[in-house]
Design brief:
The chain is α+β, with helices and mostly antiparallel strands. It is about 50% helix and about 10% strand.
């Protein structure tokens, strides 16, 4: 039964729902309302959350990837999507895909997210840091891709001179262009199991020639953030050259 028939004002909610693509409208309508005291308020809240998600497609894409990788059930995915953007990213900073029951770990982290200050105001702090240190668009793009551990290293001394802080961006973040020769069959990256951290580079491969170091962690390939080595391989594909962005924080 359509959600619009069991709440009031019916016309207002129905109009707002019709503004959404089918997938997002279905997500709003998929959760039960029978126990809600104020059904209208609950649906309006869901619509507001979905509007936020529409304005920030990158966070939505990251949540999609995280849910698939960690095999989350619908209830845990709903908890994650209901969090504000900064808190959702704090939750996703931990990977539980290697565990037997990742959903329970993510659910617990969602519960604790409200008390976390790590990601609160993250975007605003980045904007201030970029402005104070005259970072260019490429440098800003880099720091917006990183995890919290790397970001803390970069922004550890916000009051220092802008040149020194710019140097920190380039110290902890590296974008490397990898070139393949015609006879190269491997990229040559060996990952630590269950992570995106480089264990070693294989001799006489594009990765070794590009100067990639042990302990670096892959953040993006061709400027697309990734969460698995399979995504990295897919984005690199059979391209003769491509870029990899790393965090060098260990």
């Amino acid at each position: 039964m359509c959600i619009c028939t069991c709440i009031a004002p019916q016309e207002r909610v129905e109009y707002l729902l019709k503004e959404f693509p089918f997938r997002q409208a279905s997500h709003i309508m998929s959760r039960e309302l029978q126990s809600a005291k104020n059904k209208t308020a609950v649906v309006f809240k869901r619509i507001k959350e979905a509007n936020t998600e529409k304005r920030d497609p990158r966070t939505s894409e990251l949540i999609d990837k995280y849910c698939r990788k960690n095999r989350l059930d619908d209830d845990t995915e709903d908890r994650l999507r209901q969090l504000p953007k900064d808190e959702a990213r704090w939750v996703m900073d931990k990977d539980y895909s290697h565990m037997k029951d990742p959903a329970s770990m993510v659910a617990a982290r969602c519960k604790n997210a409200r008390g976390s200050e790590e990601y609160v105001g993250k975007d605003e702090r980045i904007e201030d840091f970029v402005r104070q240190n005259d970072l260019n668009e490429d440098e800003e793009h880099l720091i917006r891709m990183v995890d919290m551990k790397t970001l803390k290293k970069i922004m550890k001394y916000p009051q220092r001179g802008s040149e020194e802080n710019r140097d920190r961006v380039h110290k902890f973040l590296r974008t490397v262009t990898v070139y393949r020769a015609e006879d190269d069959t491997l990229i040559g990256l060996d990952f630590i199991p269950g992570s995106l951290v480089i264990n070693k580079t294989i001799d006489n491969t594009p990765a070794q020639r590009a100067g990639i170091k042990t302990g670096w962690r892959v953040l993006a390939v061709n400027d697309r953030p990734i969460s698995t080595k399979e995504e990295a391989a897919s984005l690199a594909g059979s391209l003769q050259s491509f870029t990899i962005t790393f965090s060098t924080v260990q």
